[in-house]
Amino acid sequence: MPCAAVVKADAYGCGLAAVAPALWRAGCRSFFVAHLDEALRLRALLPDAGVSVLNGLLPGTEAIYPEARLRPVLGSREEVEAWASVSRGRLPAVLHVDTGMNRLGLRVPEALDLGGDPAVARAGIDLLMTHLVSAECPDDPVNARQIGDFARVRAAFPGIAGSLANSSGIFLGRSAHHDLLRPGYALYGGNPTPARANPMRPVVRLEAAVAQIRDVEPGESVGYNGRWTSPDRRRLATLSLGYADGYPRSASNAGHALIGGVPCPILGLISMDLVIVDATQAPGAVRGAAATLIGDALDIDTVGRAAGTIGYEILTGLGSRYVRHYVGG
């Protein structure tokens, strides 16, 4: 089954310049990004890749696509007509059908009306796509409805390939697979099956150095606004990262770090550049030691839940100040 790679948002925060060539070497030939500037960066990295731009054909950008050999994802009748005047049947495009997300794309009746219209050939449409609303919840009835609606649309466009399954959609079974899979989050180690064990290998590990160790006495507070007060004598480790690095402030008094494999709760408010953890039970907590913020028992989904968000946001928020080391690929 052909499999594309979604590499938007700097390859989900992992670094497009490293990730895209690694995926190419692994055999991937089709890529999806959200924005035109991402597509241009990707084209410079991979001159021969198929590159599709998900967020539609914005007015005034039409001439850029053929010049850079990019494929627009068309989400309205207006976009189809605009691209048809450029393509004249010679340049490819994707048609986005909205089967329930209500973000982008032609509604199902609009898509059915477009089937057989000469504009389809003039726009060079060679792929139909839609996006699943709730694929990570396999029992949600919206999945079956979307699968059925997309099958109806495909029947109105004979001979044109289809793409439905995102990371979680791949695990809904063959009826969701069609001709091209479009994983994103799962490529970067995120769990596409949240109700079950993660079938993906971890991809990202985030570490920060212990900048300082100090002991506090009962009644002493920690961090801005004193949001945590020590109930007894504790040993604290201050880590050299903060919300300016994309580590979410919402993990204040909720998340953990691992020092020498020992869970160390985050104490008080996370600062712009620093995080304080309770290292009382971590004998390996010394100045210069590595604290793990993502990795081992702290997978990206666990980190997201602790911060009241999702692993996607944790990944895509990884900041530019980190020193990145790429292993393998």
Automatic annotation (TrEMBL):
Pathway: Amino-acid biosynthesis; D-alanine biosynthesis; D-alanine from L-alanine: step 1/1
A UniProt-annotated Pfam family: Ala_racemase_N
GO molecular function, one term: alanine racemase activity
InterPro entries linked to this entry: Ala_racemase, Ala_racemase/Decarboxylase_C, Ala_racemase_C, Ala_racemase_N, Ala_racemase_pyridoxalP-BS, PLP-binding_barrel
Keyword Isomerase in record: yes
Enzyme nomenclature, EC number: 5.1.1.1
The protein's name in its UniProt record: Alanine racemase
Species annotation: Methylobacterium oxalidis
The organism's taxonomic lineage, starting at the top: Bacteria, Pseudomonadati, Pseudomonadota, Alphaproteobacteria, Hyphomicrobiales
